[in-house]
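Q: What residues go here?
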């Protein structure tokens, strides 16, 4: 009888432990963001090498405040503005011949458009000192800084959430929350020709 009681106690204790683990796991998964990664191929080199490239989440606020679009005589698909570094530069659609890192900001082929749910707008540009080094001051940005994109009569406001470096080998791994609309900016790392820096920003509002 004693052995049977001990066995019963062991079984009950085991069930209690498993139940506790399941409850803790459920709480953890509920609070965990859906993180994923995406491999993208780029041809981004330092200017010294003179290489060219050939080629809506939850809690998003839609505001009614008046938005006055920036004049767009060049027919850009969108216009990127980062007030902190005095950057305002347009970019063309993926198939446009001017969508080239040797001429403009590049709207990378794997990109989604700003109005695509949970999409990722990927912009690439040179850093350095020449006239095409549109991302030369991106290194000044910090987590929490703001970038904006004007697209089809709306203003999309993004906040930088993560900044990291990768080896410059023609490929970039984009780590982001795939349940949120994202802006990814990629450029060469300042003072390091072997690295590239990736800036991940999430959509905050649309107007």
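A:
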């Amino acid at each position: 009888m004693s052995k049977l009681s001990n066995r019963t106690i062991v079984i009950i204790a085991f069930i209690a432990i498993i139940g506790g683990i399941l409850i803790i796991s459920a709480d953890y998964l509920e609070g965990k963001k859906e993180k994923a990664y995406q491999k993208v191929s780029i041809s981004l080199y330092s200017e010294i090498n003179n290489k060219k490239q050939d080629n809506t989440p939850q809690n998003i606020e839609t505001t009614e405040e008046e938005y006055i679009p920036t004049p767009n005589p060049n027919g850009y698909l969108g216009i990127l503005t980062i007030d902190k570094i005095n950057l305002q530069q347009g970019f063309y659609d993926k198939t446009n011949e001017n969508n080239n890192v040797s001429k403009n900001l590049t709207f990378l082929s794997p990109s989604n458009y700003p109005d695509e749910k949970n999409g990722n707008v990927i912009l690439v540009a040179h850093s350095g000192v020449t006239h095409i080094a549109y991302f030369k001051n991106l290194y000044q940005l910090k987590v929490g800084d703001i970038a904006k994109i004007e697209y089809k009569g709306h203003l999309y406001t993004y906040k930088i959430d993560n900044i990291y470096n990768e080896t410059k080998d023609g490929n970039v791994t984009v780590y982001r929350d795939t349940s949120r609309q994202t802006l990814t900016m990629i450029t060469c790392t300042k003072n390091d020709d072997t690295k590239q820096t990736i800036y991940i920003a999430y959509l905050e509002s649309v107007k």
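A: Context that may help when evaluating the design: Residues 28-34, 44-59 have pLDDT under 50 and may be disordered. The first helix runs from residue 2 to 31.
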